[in-house]
Specification:
Blueprint: E1 57-58, E2 64-69, E3 82-91, E4 96-99, H1 100-103, E5 107-110, H2 116-122, E6 130-135, E7 152-162, E8 182-183, E9 189-194, E10 206-216, E11 221-224, H3 225-228, E12 232-235, H4 241-247, E13 255-260, E14 280-291, E15 322-324
Antiparallel strand pairs: 1-2, 2-6, 3-4, 3-5, 3-7, 6-7, 8-9, 9-13, 10-11, 10-12, 10-14, 13-14
Length: about 325
């Protein structure tokens, strides 16, 4: 069974540290590609699968699209929302590689947790609408081994919009450490906002329970356990390096702001769909320290997925990205 993530798709980002700033979770309904299914049962490709027709519209990013069936709704989903869709994806030679329609089960995923072409395209739609998208490789899987290559074509029906958490305003010093902040040898900067009541610091072998919110330096919130109304718990040794180092400086009851360099977060070009790029800023409140359960081998949490990374299970925020088709409507 070959799985493609067509939606974050959540890591980014546990209930992207964010439900674990630490790692992105896979959408429960992620589309699955079954290489053993006879091609005769596949949904036929449209006549214009090879290239966008003359009446297709194109965005500045290069995404081409054409409305097949007008919608009945008036609202467009925002990138913080989740959506439920029916979809089918083909390569430009007409081969179907994934389809929730064929499985007769709509896919549900966070709009930030899928491939870029889905994140952009779904925001152009309204409920009840079916649109055909021609997604350039740069907005799809980018030539990753094992993923559909080249431009991809999708017919997507937007079934439902599920409102995401209301963004929490970024602090005034979100772009850079403010006066009074301290910086460690690794480049991690932090500033205590509220002193703690505890005396003990957690170790990376332990698990912690936290409330947190993460922003990119332009002030855009990408993950927050606070907005979800549910603290995140995760093994401290399984999140992004900035979280592993920073939370160990805290005691229970403490609230600290961290400015995490890209190399201690997801990097400038994140490998995980939906993970935020560049330096990140987090407000973290340490609520409890507990013993960690043994994590699955090879898994890194990230905020948003269970503490920073679990859209954070793996790394914060991950809040997620198109999961990518084949994994939950566009999940990778």
């Amino acid at each position: 069974m070959i799985r493609f993530l067509a939606i974050c798709f959540f890591a980014a980002c546990s209930t992207s540290a964010p439900e674990a700033p630490p790692a992105a979770e896979k959408p429960a309904d992620a589309p699955v590609v079954d290489a053993t299914t006879p091609a005769s049962t596949d949904i036929p490709a449209p006549a214009d699968v090879a290239a966008p027709p003359a009446d297709a519209l194109k965005t500045a990013s290069g995404l081409a699209y054409k409305v097949i069936t007008p919608g009945t709704g008036a609202e467009h989903p925002a990138d913080i929302d989740s959506v439920k869709v029916n979809y089918t994806g083909w390569t430009t030679d007409g081969k179907m590689f994934d389809s929730s329609t064929k499985r007769k089960k709509p896919a549900k995923f966070k709009l930030k947790g899928v491939i870029a072409g889905w994140t952009e395209g779904l925001q152009l739609m309204t409920t009840g609408e079916t649109v055909r998208f021609w997604i350039p490789e740069a907005l799809a899987y980018g030539g990753k081994p094992g993923k559909p290559a080249g431009m991809l074509v999708f017919d997507v029906e937007l079934v439902e919009i599920i409102p995401g958490p209301k963004p929490i305003p970024a602090p005034e010093d979100v772009a850079a450490p403010s006066k009074g902040a301290k910086t460690t040898k690794s480049g991690l900067s932090y500033k205590v906002l509220t002193k703690g009541t505890g005396k003990v610091h957690p170790t990376k072998e332990q698990a912690v329970e936290v409330d947190y919110t993460g922003w990119t330096v332009d002030g855009a919130m990408f993950d927050s356990s606070v907005s979800r109304g549910k603290p995140a718990s995760f093994p401290l040794g399984r999140v992004i390096p900035g979280w592993t180092e920073g939370v160990q400086l805290m005691v229970v009851g403490e609230k600290t702001r961290f400015w995490i360099p890209a190399d201690l977060a997801y990097g400038d070009t994140p490998k995980r769909p939906g993970a935020p790029s560049g330096p990140l800023t987090f407000d973290i409140e340490l609520k409890a320290i507990k013993e960690a359960a043994a994590p699955a081998a090879g898994k890194m949490l990230a905020p948003g997925k269970m503490g920073p990374g679990s859209k954070l299970g793996g790394k914060p925020g991950a809040g997620g990205k198109l999961a990518k088709p084949g994994k939950a409507g566009g999940a990778e």
